[in-house]
Write a structure and sequence with these properties.
The strands form five sheets. Strands 3, 4, 6, 9, 12, 14, 17, 20 and 23 form a nine-stranded antiparallel sheet that branches. This protein is mainly β. It has two domains: 181 residues, Jelly Rolls (Sandwich), CATH 2.60.120.380; 120 residues, no CATH class. A hairpin with a 4-residue loop joins strand 18 and strand 19.
Amino acid sequence: MALFKHAGILFIALTAGLSVFSQSAPAIDENIPFLVTFGGNSSTAWGDDDFCQIFFCVIPSSQTNPVYIRIYDPDTGGELDEAKGEFNTIISFSVYAGKGCWSDTAAQSIHPTGNFRSGYLLSSKSFGTDLKYDKKWFTFGPFNPLEGEYVEKLGGRVFKIIAQGKSGDDGNIYKYFLSTSQTENTAVEGGNFFTYKYHFRLSDDQKHVCQIYPYVDDKTISIEVSNFDWDNDGVIRIFSVAKNGTLCNVSGENNWLVKKFPIVPEEKNSTIEIQFIKNQVLQVKNNNVVISVRNQYGISLPFYVVPIGGVPVYSPKIRMK
């Protein structure tokens, strides 16, 4: 089993069988097919509000051998990507580590401004149309785990990877894997990915329910769930130990919707599940969505691809005030 330490509390977060899933972003259990980042000249109406996505990966302190960050289908111009006319888009991927990589408040903001590229740059590469990488893996690394920023409450050392649209107007569809191998997807035992603003592609299958997992710390008394460009594609529900599918307001085309929810004591230091349930009548294809969660102070809460403490289980004994 892998142990995670957060807010001074140890959680048994993963079983040995689930630890492999923690290495991918999105994780298999999230039922999300891909991440998405559009070119810097795109219209936000395609479902990307700022053309930049920031992910962090936690490497447990027990990991001493080199690690790799792998990207599936990093090029823009292949079978999976979303074209707007002829492909003309460049997306850069950059890996950062060291002091301030995570702890700089700009890195945790949902807006890519200020010193969001904090830490020091380990490696970077830009991709356009390149069949060599279409539906194939590109690998950053090897990286010494000791280069990551040590964060005690996160239980290890943190690296940051930023995907940013530099030019063009097409959508880049991709995913990550945290590996101990340069050529294969071999799990880093106890590793995990997290982000503060999730940009992702929904499944086109109307029977698929996607879910993501924000973590609520002990200082949170309320949350604001924000979703962008949902295109009215069904419903969004919130689950926790105290919420049994509470409905969240949903956004339409190219706009944000925000819904505030109270947090009861039993929900603190635990994970909440946000489910995306597609419309069973309309057939919305290539639906790209952005979502963030902030507490009462406006501080963004992290989404772990494998939930800290496990998927929440509703307890009817706990009542919302």
